[in-house]
Automatic annotation (TrEMBL):
Molecular functions per Gene Ontology: transmembrane transporter activity
Ranges that cross the membrane: 53-77, 84-107, 113-130, 142-160, 172-193, 214-235, 241-266, 278-297, 303-326, 338-360, 366-385
Membrane topology: Multi-pass membrane protein
Main subcellular location of this protein, as a coarse class: membrane
Name of the protein described by the UniProt record: MFS transporter
UniProt keyword terms in alphabetical order: Cell membrane, Membrane, Transmembrane, Transmembrane helix
Source species taxonomy: Bacteria, Bacillati, Actinomycetota, Actinomycetes, Micrococcales
Length: 393
């Protein structure tokens, strides 16, 4: 009997080792994806492009995920889940190495695109993986714990790498990240148990209705990420324009990420009891925080306070949408993971592009209002779609 077939889903405690490995891997995945956000001005200055063009490093990464997540997940359905996850971590390592040594913007963008291919598979596999490690009653908590790795990427990974990039150069930040990714390959290989499963469709009675609910959750996910990343992609530009020093950007992002753990904690404690209430409250906090940011700008104190409030709400967003999508049972966990991953990155990439357009048009002060309007629209979808976002699991 293989290790995969021997594994039986259980409680969160029983799956602690595997969930820890997934959390660490998620931490590195998010840090790799978002590191350019804190270093946009420095990268742009060295390679000779504007902030709005440099922001496209986030867009090209997200575009690869948006386009490839579902087809790659289906194409790799027969490959061992654990081997596939390890392959994505190796690809993250290589991507960061290419970025660290890139001689020009074209090579830099190519390295990011390669990382985007890895990302297209990583979250698709990891979301399904986490749900397969535990029994259905523990899905919300398991996904919230793994998502805590994403929050930790904002709390520690991106801010510390940003501070390192400010002190030693942005290339050093990507080089260090490549080394940590390589170490994570070893950690995951040792701790993560193999599980069965792949990217096949979920069939049976009511499958059409379940797929519709999954489509609604995925759409709301894309709209909320669109609003968030319209602003967050250019958060370092906003902070600098409000009067923060370049050396202060990393510590501020660290603080914003830290308060994001409050949102993650709130999601973890409510998703298996009051999932609808959790998503509505979190999106309300994000919307209010972005509006407050727009009103406060360019007063630095108000900008910092509003950004912290916004960050606290967004810390729980990933896990609420992942859990809602899994609970629709509209497809296999891996395909659902691919859809959540793809739609989130449609929002990330398009948000970066919308933000660039706002920067080039109305100006920096309008970014928070544009983002708030989009997150509010996502909240309306949640309010209307009661069956996709039910009051109880």
């Amino acid at each position: 009997m293989s290790v995969a077939s021997a594994w039986r889903p259980g409680t969160v405690r029983a799956a602690a080792g595997g969930l820890f490995a997934l959390t660490i891997a998620t931490f590195l995945a998010v840090t790799t994806e978002m590191l350019p956000v804190g270093l946009l001005p420095a990268i742009g200055d060295e390679v000779g492009v504007s902030d709005s063009i440099t922001g496209l490093l986030v867009t090209v990464y997200a575009f690869m995920v948006a386009v490839l997540a579902v087809p790659l997940t289906l194409w790799t359905a027969r490959i061992s889940r654990k081997r596939l996850l390890l392959a994505t971590l190796v690809a993250y390592t290589l991507s960061n190495v290419v970025v660290a040594v890139a001689p020009n913007f074209a090579v830099l963008a190519a390295g990011r695109a390669f990382g985007g291919i890895a990302h297209a598979l990583f979250f698709s596999v990891s979301i399904g993986y986490a749900s397969r490690l535990v029994q259905a009653a523990y899905t919300g908590r398991a996904l919230a714990l793994v998502t805590a790795g994403a929050s930790a990427g904002f709390v520690l990974g991106v801010p510390l790498s940003t501070s390192l990039g400010t002190a030693l150069g942005w290339r050093a930040a990507f080089g260090v990240l490549a080394g940590v990714c390589a170490l994570t390959v070893v950690i995951v290989a040792l701790l993560l148990p193999a599980v069965p499963g792949g990217g096949t469709s979920h069939k049976g009675e009511g499958a059409g209705a379940r797929r519709i609910r999954l489509g609604i959750v995925s759409t709301a996910n894309a709209v909320v990420y669109l609003g968030h990343f319209t602003v967050y992609t250019y958060i370092s530009v906003l902070l600098l324009a409000a009067g923060l020093s370049a050396a202060g950007v990393g510590p501020v992002l660290l603080g914003v990420g830290a308060v994001g753990l409050l949102g993650t904690w709130f999601a973890a404690t409510n998703l298996d009891r009051r999932p609808r209430t959790a998503v509505i409250l979190l999106l309300s906090v994000v919307t209010v925080g972005l509006v407050a940011l727009g009103i406060a700008y360019p007063a630095l104190g108000g900008v910092l306070a509003a950004t912290a409030f916004w960050g606290a709400g967004f810390g729980g967003v990933a896990s609420v949408f992942q859990t809602a999508a899994i609970r629709t049972r509209g497809a296999s966990p891996e395909v659902i993971g691919a859809l959540v991953n793809s739609t989130a990155n449609i929002g990330i990439g398009a948000g970066a592009a919308i933000g660039a357009a706002v920067l080039a048009g109305p100006g920096l002060g309008w970014l928070p209002f544009a983002g708030a309007a989009l997150v509010f629209a996502g909240g309306i979808i949640v309010l209307v779609a009661r069956r996709s976002f039910p009051a109880s699991p």
